[in-house]
Amino acid sequence: MISQVVLCLFVAATAGQVGVTAQRICNNSPNLCNRTYDSITYLGAHDSPFVRDVSTGYSSFGDQFFNTSTQLDAGVRMLTAQVHAVTTAQGAQEWHLCHTLCNLFDVGKLSDWLWEVRTWLDRNPTDVVTIILVNSDNAKAADLMPEFSAADIAHYAYVPPFQKPPPVPADGASAWPALNEMIDQGKRLVSFVASIDPASNTAAPYLLNEFDFVWETAYDVSNASGFKCTPDRPPSLDASMAAAKAAGMLFMMNHFLYWDQAFGIQVPDIRNVQNTNAWDGEGSLGQTLLDCSGQYQRQPTFVLVDFFNVGPAIDSVDIFNGVKDAVGRTLVTAEVVGGGAGIMEEERSITTTKTLKPCKVWL
């Protein structure tokens, strides 16, 4: 492998791109419209609906400072959430979004959150969003399908023409469509569910078994030196990048720290988030992006962070995508939020000047 110092955006701008569509803005950039779904890096909000703000009393379980709609407005394009079964006082079962345990932090019904995402998709007709649901109580497709129906979001869902990604051919051609194609077809939501049985969801084929399509780095990291680039899930890959690449799987880079509390409870490590989401330094987002992309010889598909707005997390992903002049984003503070601080300024067209240093990339 030969490496030299060049701007990361040079590689990203040429990877998987077959042209530029100036007439349309896709995921905040015309440069992404003709890129295939799997050749783009998406900024992900870890535990998107679990918000640390005045509405939750600034709960220590909150992973984000802003709600899902604001996350999407600001440029996030991948959302994760934890789904749990809850028995109501009347004995009915509901599917709620809870952080670890529902008696610790329950933010309500899955269908209500999906409605929020659906409403955002209605307002933004040229954007593609991905959801990954952590299936904490082993929900079946029959359990989750009514939640998607109640939110009237299933009509946006993309169903790939394969049950598992096919091996990448020698010419590197992608089996995934370009964003343009997904937008034209009105199929702008990709929905993965962890450990759902694909054989049981013939009525809802849009509920994709995450670990048939996606591999992840370790998610339970509690110190800056703990970020590694090898597969942690699914275990069938046996920590082999080669096996993941041969299978054509999408790469999710988990990049957030937990703060271990008493009784085995973990909360997001807000103490170190400025360093975790930084471009340089041990355990920084930028350095881990470079390390993992170099080892895997391809940029991550998803980069999952806590407190997405803090530091240059958005800028770092833009660099990997070759996006220099993002359009149509809401500008939020890049600082740790507390005491009611919020959106600094709302802009529908924002030009950001990248000041991050050049970096070593793979050629």
Automatic annotation (TrEMBL):
Signal peptide as annotated in the record: 1-22
InterPro entries: PI-PLC_domain (IPR051057), PLC-like_Pdiesterase_TIM-brl (IPR017946)
Biological processes per GO annotation: lipid metabolic process
Keywords, comma-separated and alphabetical: Signal
Gene Ontology molecular functions: phosphoric diester hydrolase activity
KW Signal (keyword) present: yes
Keyword Protein transport: no
PANTHER family with a match to the protein in the record: PLC-LIKE PHOSPHODIESTERASE, PTHR13593
Protein name: PLC-like phosphodiesterase
